């Protein structure tokens, strides 16, 4: 009788999974049966980063995934194709690195805060990297300085980098050592180029912006885990166009804007305060004294409104 062997999922293509074993061997695997996903409607039952037990098939050329081991954490997003379902980007990560830029393409208002809504529920440390600094004009550097102040004050690490000029690379390389890092970003921000700078041996495929739309083209089709010479791993993910939150409730948002949640103990209604029109709201008071970022608060209200615009029945119906 063959014994189960433990490995880590390093790539998912929808129906097949690549699993790396402790000895470095990589098995091509299929799922054996169905896996429960708690009470969530998730499009992919297994994610890159999952620790799994596999059973090699008689042929010795492939294996079956028999068990998913408990996850330390995971990053979920609303499915781009099925808004009432969720897609798991990755699991068991030590930190997440968001690659963005001020220009080429223009930074989407609120995108950073939307991304942080995926990492905060598990207290996953997030690093915000502004790439393409070689293209910034003076006003762009002013924008960066303002954003760097906002996010560093509430505990996020913020960096300025240029993949083309290979500037700002060493501090990022240090952060990746001996850690599993999810790397994500909007299409066209130079994510693959920056990852190639951080680990030249990977040679990830890159592509220029579309001349017609000015938007990025997807160069990463599926999430994939790559080893780093420093001993860590990165999980490269497909370019993100939009981030929606039909699966969340308003209080989920309030509790995952970290500085708002910290202040909520001083609110008259405590954790039940949504920080809008409630009396005795500590967040609104901090907003007036500029202790809370007006930009963050505006983005927060937009996400709340978006969730509430989807009526209760639509957000809770069975699909």
What does this structure look like?
The protein has 319 residues and is of the alpha/beta class. It has 3 domains: 5-68, Beta Barrel (OB fold (Dihydrolipoamide Acetyltransferase, E2P)), CATH 2.40.50.140; 93-236, P-loop containing nucleotide triphosphate hydrolases (Rossmann fold), CATH 3.40.50; 250-316, Orthogonal Bundle (Ribonucleotide Reductase Protein R1, domain 1). It is 26% helix and 23% strand. The chain is built from 9 helices and 13 strands. The strands form 3 sheets. A 6-stranded mixed sheet has the order 10-9-8-11-13-12, sandwiched between helices. Strands 1-2-3-5-4 form a 5-stranded mixed beta barrel. A hairpin with a 4-residue loop joins strand 1 (5-12) and strand 2. The protein is globular. It starts with a strand and ends with a helix. 33% of the residues are buried. Mean pLDDT is 88; it is low at 208-220.
Averaged pLDDT: 88
Count every helix, treating DSSP H or I runs of 4 or more residues as helices.
9
The separation of the N and C termini measures 41 Å
> Structural class, from secondary structure content?
alpha/beta
């Amino acid at each position: 009788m063959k014994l189960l062997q433990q490995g880590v999922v390093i790539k998912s293509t929808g129906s097949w999974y690549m699993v790396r074993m402790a000895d470095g061997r990589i098995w091509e695997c299929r799922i054996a049966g169905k896996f429960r996903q708690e009470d969530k409607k998730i499009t992919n039952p297994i994610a890159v980063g999952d620790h799994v037990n596999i059973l090699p098939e008689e042929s010795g050329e492939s294996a079956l995934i028999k068990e998913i081991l408990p996850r330390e954490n995971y990053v979920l997003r609303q499915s781009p194709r099925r808004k009432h379902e969720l897609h798991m980007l990755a699991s068991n990560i030590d930190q997440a690195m968001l690659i963005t830029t001020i220009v080429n393409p223009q930074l989407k208002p609120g995108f950073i805060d939307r991304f942080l809504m995926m990492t905060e529920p598990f207290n996953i440390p997030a690093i915000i990297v502004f790439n393409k600094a070689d293209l910034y004009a003076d006003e762009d550097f002013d924008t960066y300085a303002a954003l760097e102040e906002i996010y560093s004050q509430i505990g996020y690490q913020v960096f300025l980098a240029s993949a083309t000029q290979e500037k700002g690379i060493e501090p990022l390389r240090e952060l990746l050592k001996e850690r599993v890092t999810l790397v994500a970003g909007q299409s066209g921000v130079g994510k693959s180029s920056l990852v190639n700078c951080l680990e030249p041996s990977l040679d990830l495929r890159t592509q220029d912006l579309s001349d017609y739309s000015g938007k990025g083209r997807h160069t990463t089709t599926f999430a994939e885990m790559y080893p780093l010479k420093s001993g860590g791993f990165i999980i490269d993910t497909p370019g993100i166009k939009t981030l929606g939150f039909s699966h969340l409730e308003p209080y989920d948002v309030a509790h995952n804007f970290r500085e708002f949640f910290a202040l909520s103990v001083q609110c008259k209604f405590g954790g039940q305060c949504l920080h809008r029109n409630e009396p005795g709201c500590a967040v609104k008071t901090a907003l007036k004294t500029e202790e809370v970022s007006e930009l963050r608060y505006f983005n927060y209200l937009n996400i709340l409104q978006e969730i509430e615009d989807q009526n209760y029945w639509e957000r809770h119906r069975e699909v």
